[in-house]
Every structure is written in structure tokens, then in C-alpha cells.
Amino acid sequence: MDSGKQLTGTLALAVFTAALGSLQYGYSLGVINAPQKVIQNHYGRSLGVLSERAAVAPENATEEEEFQEVGSHPSVVMYWSLSVAIFSVGGMVSSFLVGFVGDLRGRVKGMLMVNVLAVAAGLLMGLCKMWKPHIMVISGRAVMGFYCGLTSGLVPMYIGEIAPKAYRGALGTLHQLAIVTGILISQVAGLDFVLGNDDMWPLLLGLSGAPAVLQSFLLPLCPESPRYLYIVLGKEQEARTSLCRLKGPCDTTSDLEEMRREKEEADKEARVSILSLVVSSVYRQQLFVALMMHLSQQLSGINAIFYYSTAIFAQAGVSQPVYATIGVGVINTIFTMVSVALVDKAGRRTLTLIGLGGMCCSAIAMTVGLGFQSQFPWMSYVSMSAIFLFVSFFEIGPGPIPWFIVAELFSQGPRPAAIALAGCCNWTSNFIVGMTFPYIQVWLGCYVFILFAALLFCFTVFTYLRVPETKGKTFEEIADVFQKGRKKPAQIPKDDAELQQLKSSTDA
């Protein structure tokens, strides 16, 4: 068997261990939605709002009405909004530090170090009843967001660097599979009769730190990234040992030769900082493609579906919309598995185009269904089917691929800075969609998804025209694709000047 196509137990363990960080990210994303009313009730008690309401509430008011009253109190609304939004703010801030943490002590030790944050966040939320729940939950969510911003960069970076070329796409997609699995687990655990109730909700939130504990025990068993050892630290023998652990007994000459060439390029480039990456014309095309792919993921409207699917299903006449939302989570997970199976056969570009085009059509169908369901009752089935299709197409391409394609588009020198910028772009656009969608929904009503359809059409055209296929190519070959448009003879002096400029800005 070709060594480039070998999957070993050590490689499987390393990928599984890294993906636990992504599972935690997904769980933290989804966990806050299900127990909203229960948590708002506790916020109300802590802030003294519930006792005020109870004092003036009419005797015949039901408990449900009292909860709704509390949920609409300005102080409760403010603290609840902060509990949801602070997660994205933490991620936006820490995504800039991915490159620094990854290079400080290595990918494995970097993931191990940041687990302290996840455990601290889990304890803050799990023990929130011991003090003021609103302060404890917001603090825990902020720390967890900071952790997830780091792990959403470190996990794809590590998996991308240890994966054999033949399986790089499939293994890279596991980051997204772990995220959607985490979301699904949080949806099920958040059901009222499981943990989403008045007594157990702190445990529900606190469990978001549990994968970090398991990961901390497994990480010491995982080999460090050979690319990091050779290209960043210059330790050839240690890189060879790591390769043999990951691939089994095999000839590592071709892998080391590829790394040697990449190291020579990286030495010419010097260490590329985030600022020098932004201003450099050498990497402009790759960076533009990477950022646009992350924007296409977040501005597709997928988070609007995740956050508001329960309300949309209720509008469509589903008697138990929370179970329909869990159905969306199941579809989400199944089609991410489809992507894992297809990504190294069909290719990244093809799957992204199919996904974006399918989502665009589904968004139009959803708009038609929601717009006409008051006149034609059967239209509710159209809107529900469109939601399921929308999620399915998202997970085939636009969901998983942006996370790992950034690691493929850049060589070792600029890779950490590029992953940091792409991560920050992802978190920022996620935050913007989460904050603005309710207002846009009020403004556009059932036509809100037409806006997303228009954006999806633009992203489909961009992907067709500008995104190259990276399937089965070395990092060198991918970089060459972007250099093809440059005139080599005229460009050489300019590139040298660029590299000098990069070195001076990096040294500074």
C-alpha cells in the first residue's frame, strides 16, 4: 500500500483527539438556545425582577405567562443578549492569537494549554447558582468563546498538517462533523426532560467543558505535527519520527523532501505576521479567496436557520417544533458525513459550487413557501422541505470546506496568520448575522431569505470564477496556481522587493 494513502491507529487517535475541541465548539454554539426561558427565569430571580412581577401578578396568571413577562423585562433581555453575543466576541478576539499559540509550543501543546480556559469556563457556568447566575454565565460564555476562537483555528491547522495528501479533505471535514455533532448533542441534552430544566440547566452549560478534560488526557499520546517540527523548528529527525508514528513503517523521503522545499520557501519568506500578510501583494489572491469562502459560510443564512428554525417550524404549523429543529440537527450531521465521503473524490471546488447553488434555490423555495402558506396550507410543506434541503446543501460544501481549505491555500510561512485572519472574519460575520438578523426579519418579514439567496448567488459566481481545485495537490502546487497569472521574468525583482519588505516588517 502507498504510504501516502495509509491510515494508522495513531493518525486516527490524533485526528479524533483534535476534533474533540471542535465537538466542544459545536456544543457551546448550540447549548444556549434550548433552555432560554429557564435561564431567563433564573436571571429574573437574581435581578429581583421575578419577585417584583410575582408581587403584582394577578392570581390567575399562569406560570408560563409569568415566565414570558420576565423574559421581556429590559434588564433580563440585556443580560440574555449579552450571554449569547459574548461568545462570538470572545472568538473574534482570540482568533488573532491562533498563529502565536500554535507556534509558541507547537500544535499539540498549544491545544493542551488552551484547555485550561475550557475547564475554567465550564466550572463558571456549572457553578453559576452559587453566586449571581447572570454574571457567572456571561463570564463563562466569554471565556468559552475565547477558547473556541483558538480551537477553531488550531484544530484545522493540526489536522491539515498531519493528514496524508490522499485523505486531507476527508480528515479536514471531520472538524465540521465534530461541530455539528456537538450542536446535535446540545440540542438533545437541552430537552426539558433531559437537562434543559429548572434544576439541571447549570450542568447542561457546565458540560461544555467536558470534552477538554478527555482531550487533555489524550493529547500527550498524539505526535506533534511533522511540518511544525521540520519547517518551524528545523528538527528533521524528530519530524521523521513523528511521520513514522503517523504513517506506520514507511519511507519518509518524499514527505521530508516536500517539507525541505517548503522550508526553503518559508526561510525566504521569513515569518509572516498578520499585518504583513494583509499588505503583501504576494498572497493577496489566496487571502481574498480564503476570506470570501469564510464569508460565504456565515452570510449564507445558515445561522439564521439554526437560531430561528423552531420559530419557522411553529409558523409552518408543526405541533412540536423543537423536535423538528433536532431533525435539522440530524440532517446536518448526516450530510456532513456525506461530505467526508465525497470531498477527496469530487473535490473541494465542485462540492462548494453544488452546496452554494443548492442553498440559493432552497432559500428561494423557502421564501415562496413562507409567503404563500396562509393562502395554500400545503405550502408549509414546501417551506419545511426547503429548510431541510438548505441545511443539507450547506453541509455538503460551504460548511466544512472553508475551515480546512485555508490551510491548503497557504505555505507554512503565512499559514498561521492566514488561519487567524480567516477565523476572525468567520467569527465577526457570525456575530453580525446573529445581531442583525432579528431586525432584518422585522423589516423584510417572510422575504428575509431572498436577501440570503442574492448573496448566495454572488458567492456561487465568485467560487466558479476564482476558487481553484486543491484536491490531491501538494502545498507547492496549490501556491503555483495563484502565481500562474504573474509574469515570471518581470515579477522576480518585484517579488524580491516584496520579500525584503515582508522581512523588514516582520522584524519590526
TrEMBL record:
GO terms for biological process: D-glucose import; dehydroascorbic acid transport. The keyword rRNA-binding does not apply. GO terms for cellular component: brush border; plasma membrane. It is found in: Membrane. Its main location: membrane. The keyword Nucleotide-binding does not apply. It is a multi-pass membrane protein. Keywords: Membrane, Sugar transport, Transmembrane, Transmembrane helix, Transport. Residues 14-471 form the Major facilitator superfamily (MFS) profile domain. The chain crosses the membrane at residues 77-100, 112-132, 138-159, 171-189, 287-310, 322-343, 350-372, 378-396, 417-436, 442-465. InterPro entries: GLUT, MFS_dom, MFS_sugar_transport-like, MFS_trans_sf, Sugar/inositol_transpt, Sugar_transporter_CS. Belongs to the major facilitator superfamily. Sugar transporter (TC 2.A.1.1) family. This is Solute carrier family 2 facilitated glucose transporter member 2. It comes from Scophthalmus maximus. The lineage of its organism: Eukaryota, Metazoa, Chordata, Craniata, Vertebrata.
